[in-house]
Structure formats: C-alpha cells, structure tokens
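Repro case for the chain-ordering regression, as requested:
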Amino acid sequence: MADHTPSRDGEPQPIGAQLIIPIAAIIFTLYYFWTIVDAPWTAQVSAFFVGCILLILCAIFLVRQALAVRHGRANLGIGDLVTHADVRSGRLAIFVLTVLYIVVIQWTGFAITTFVFLFLSIAILTRGHRLGLVGLVSFCMVIAGYLLFIVAFDVRIPHGPFEVLMQKVF
Amino acid sequence: MGEIATFGHLFLESLSYWWVIIPSVLLGMVVGALPGFSAANTIIVLLPLTLAMPVEVGLIFMIAIYCSSHMGAGIPAILVNIPGTAGAAATPLDGYPMAKQGRGQQALAISFIASCLGGLLTTVMALFAMPLLGQVGYYMHSVELIVVMLFGISLIATIAAGDTLKGLIAGFLGLMIGAIGSDYVYATPRATFGFLELYDGVPVIPVLVGLFAVSEAFLIMDQTSIVSEENQATIRHGTWAATFEGMHIALTRWWHIVWTSIIGLVVGVIPGAGASIACFVAYQQSRSFSKTPELYTTGHPEGLIAPEAANNGVTSGTLVPLLTLGIPGGETAAIMLIVLQYHGVNFGPTLFQLHPEIGYGVFTAMTVTYLMMLATALPIARYMSHVTMVPIAYLAPLIVSFTLLGAFVPRQYMFDMGLAVIFGVIGYLARKTGYHVAAILIGVILGPLLEQYFLRALKESNGDIMVLFSSTLGNVLWVALIISLLMPTLLAKWRADTAGVALAGK
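-- result from build under test --
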C-alpha cells in the first residue's frame, strides 16, 4: 500500500513528483482518444477499454494523494527529483551531451561521435582528472565497439569520415 | 525401450557437434547480454551462413544461440541492473541487490545453475510430454489469452512496485503506449504524434534500452561504483569459493528450480506469452509460497532462481507448438521454421514420422547445449563479477552510448535512438517516484497482442463484450487475476494480525 506516513520529525511527505506519471498518463490517454474519435470501431475498442481502466486507476490515485495532502500527511513538493546535485554530479551536462550525441552521430558517424561523447562524459564525471587515461579508455572502447558492431556483427551503424576511411583502407 | 535408444543415439550425435555448440554458446551469451542484439537478430544476420550449413549443423547452431541468449540476458541484469532482453526483466529484482552487496559472482553462479538446470529439465520434460503440451494451444483462445495478458500485467504490478496501484498505472500506461500505431484493420494512425516511424507501433528495443539502461546510467551517476569500497575488497580478493557457494545455494534449492522452470515451460507453450511473462509469474509464485517473502527484492537467492529457471524453461516450451503444430511460438522459432523449410523439412504433426531425427534431435541438441552452457559459463562467473568494480565515471557513459546504438540496430532508424532517450527520461522519472519500469515495458510488449486478441474475440461474438466471460477456463483465469491482485493486501493483513496475536500472547 501507499506509504504516506509522515517522516519521523512529523513533516508531511513530498508527493508532487509521484503525480507526474499519472498526470502524463491522463494527458496521453486523452490525446490517444482524440486521435481515434473519428476512426472505425476496430481502431477504437481496445484503446477505449485499456484507456478507461487507466483513467480510472489514475483518478483513484489522484484522489488518494489529494486526501493525503488534505489530512496533512503529504504536501505537493517534488522531493529530491531535481536538485543541485544533478548539476554538481554532471548528470545534467551528460544529458545535454546525450541529446547532442544522437543529433550529431548521423553526420559524424559512430567512431568520432562516440569517442568525443565518451571523452567529454568521462572527463565531466572524473572532474577532469587523468585526461590521458580518459582519452586512452575512450579510444579503446570505440575500437572495441567498431570491431564488435561493424567487423563481427556487420551492423549498419551510422557512418562518418572514419568509417568511410576504414572501408577504403580494408 | 526403442525410443530411449533413439534418444541416446541422438544425444551422442548432438554431443559430437561440440565444435559448433561451444562457439555458439559464447556468441549467444554475448548477444543475449547486449540490449538490441537478440538471438533472432543474430540468426538473421548469420542466415546466409546457416542456410549454407548442413541441416543438422544449422539447427544445432540456432538452438545453441537461442538457449544461451536467454541465460546471457541475465548477466547484465545482475551486474548492472540492465536486462539484455525483456525475458530477464525480473532477474534484477534480487540479482542486482546481490551484486551491490559484493555477491555478484555468487549471483551469477546461482543464475547459471538455475538457467541450465531449469532449461535441461524442461527440455527432457517437453521431449516426453510433447503430445500433451501440444494440446495446450488448442484451449487458449482469444478470450483466455486476453486474461493471461491482463494477469501478467497485474502480477508485475503486485510484484515489482511497492504500491500495487502505481504498478497497475505503470502497466496500463505501457499497454496504451504499446497500442500506438496503425490499427490492424483500416491502418488508421493512432497517437503517433505525426511521426511516420511510429506507424508500425512502438519498437520494443528502444523502450527496453531507455527504461532500463539509459535511466539506470543516469541514476547511478552520482555514485563512484556499483558496489561499496568494503564490498569491492571482497570481490578483488575473491576466490572460486563464491562460485562454489552459489552453486551450493542453487543446488540445495533444486525443488525451487524444478517447479519454477515448469511454470516457464507451460507459459512458453501458450502462444504470445513468452519469457517476459513467465519470469514474473514464477517470481510471484516463488514469493507467495516462500517462508521468507520479506527477503524478496533484497538479494534473496530464491528471487533470482525463480525468474532465471522460468525464462529458460520457456525455450523448450516455445518450440512445442512449432514442432507439433507447425506454429512458431516466437521470433527465433519462426526463423528456425524458415531455415528448415529451406532444407525441405516441414514442421507439424508429420515431422515425427518423416524426420524423427530432426523432431527429437531439437530436444537432444538443447540438452547437450545446456550441459555445455554450464561448463562454459561457470568458470567465467568470477571474472564477470569484476564489472561491478568499474568506476561509474567510466561505466555510465559506456552504457549510454553502446545501448543507444543497440536501440538503433534493429530498424536502423535514427529516430529510435531519440525514442530510447525519451524512454530514458520516463524511466528515470518512474524509478525516482516508485513506478516500476518493468511494468511499463511488459505493457508495451503486450499492448499490440492484447489488441489483436481483443478484436478477434469481439469479431467472433459480433461485438458482444460479455464474450470476455464466456469461457470456463477464461473465468477461472479471471478469478485467479482478482485473487492475485487482492492476495498481497490480504496476506499482509493476515501476517500483521498473526504477529499482533503472537505479541499479545507474549
């Protein structure tokens, strides 16, 4: 069952973050319903069946949380979902790098993009210590990945200047 | 007597192909451990090679990859909390806590024993009970399969999440996400956000990568390593003793391996259910009948044995409908069907009359594969466990970049890498706020299947929704579903009352 017992010092528990998934689920379900409102019944029936159950479950959850807030057992704070630690630990910076990684890889290819991503990410997480080792590890990992993905499994991963050069050499 | 002699002969013949089985087992373990590289994908990539091989060599090659990939999927699930496939989604529940306690080597040994013995036992059982098991498919119609799927979701909701309501929300959200894409009859696009890439539905691998790998990598970024300094010393100075201890723990729970692998076998025979449901059914049953249910999810060996034995029990189960009816029970079985048809072998009731060496040979090859898997995997458990000592600063970026490529591999759409990042964010939020990601994943997998069976049931009943309660077996399953939802609450209340009475007695 839900744990809404106040913390030991009597403070109400922050439950705001727990509402994100149900609220997102409600928005998504309503969007889904909107896209099938004029569709044939074959496209609607299963979605309405599952979607209505989901909406009922979310409603029960929201009522339960609202009662917990009303009785002073909880408040709408988001707890430790987003804190300064996310910036300090480098989590936020690496998230930005990840987004850049998937945007850029289609032009620069697997090897170069992965090397840059690994080097920068590891450098951020190690606070810039022993950059030579970081560079060596990143290089070795890219070569291992190249051998595994392209040479061993013949996977068509995004090609860039390095992959084109390798194709010409071998 | 004659049959036993035939099995013995086929067993020895399978054994003589050790030179195919051992490399295939190693390859299968690698592809099972890498999200995006399923056994089916690998066999497809190597199809030209498989087709060129003699039929028996090609079959043994495919079977060895198939069986070992099921076990391989549990390795990253235990060591870094990232299941290689959805069939290992229940493995981290107790496997990862063991690894965090510095017992990774022991956990791997337990997992290998449970997987191999579970697979071995169910293979032998399937061999003898094939005519009976082949009938299971006949009793499972659309209605029963709908209840089985909702049953699967409700089980995961009660197992994986601390709060059943949150588990159900996660599971049904997964079902809705799984229903994204064109409808089956008129191809009407539904909830695709305008992306053409979603017209075929949401691909499972990017969802798996995002929910498990990307979110886990971002969660652990503020730690220095998966295991504490103290536990690192244990791993560093580790000996073979931990492997033997793990083997001993698993072998003393042999009965647990037996009945949880039988769950896998039976679930595997049901079309569409597969390892992803079997592992949770086995886990839930294991916890329900345990004398120490409170130890589950804290690193309890039985919580690791149950899903691993079950997901390997599935391997022989999914082959039963293929061999007896000619209906492939999964992706890999479908590829086997294609390869053998290419060689002029047809599956179905006539297989055992026309090609008994192939029909029975499948199971003897599986038996030999499981024996060789045991011999191959156990010695390397000690070295694999060192992965947990790799500093997070190096491990997390590696997980992110390589698993994102895994998301790209099956369809080769750049879009799928973006999808994996989006599901990574959803997974991160879900984990931080107590919604279990396994429930979302299983929902996404079952969403399209549920819709297919739902439409079929309604079509057969001319749109009467009461068809869902029209079959005896279906109604039994509905009751089991309701019991499974109520049981945790009732059991907790009963235990609290019993404890209260005991205290009052003192």
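Ordering looks correct now. The beta strands of chain B are 181-182, 189-190.
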